[in-house]
């Protein structure tokens, strides 16, 4: 059974994507080594946030050919929806795997 402290750490990993991505899950992953539940959520959040950061950066470069004006808002909406879904699953005490990057996180 997952306790409240583990849920809070995991919630922080996912919610940090809204405020200071990459740094939050990285800190939790480095310092919280005793809980498998927290480590799994931190790894999932870190890989997802890195991927979104890179893809958004590349999409910003495509604004010169006018495709980025469509891609960037879609990426932001996709990111917000998936982060909110991860937060809800974490509050329920369940595991969450982000779409696309979930397979990479399982391999690590």
TrEMBL record:
Pfam families, alphabetized: MamF_MmsF (PF09685)
Membrane association type: Multi-pass membrane protein
Keywords: Membrane, Transmembrane, Transmembrane helix
Segments passing through the bilayer: 12-31, 43-60, 66-88
Cellular localization per UniProt: Membrane
Name of the protein described by the UniProt record: DUF4870 domain-containing protein
Organism: Paenactinomyces guangxiensis
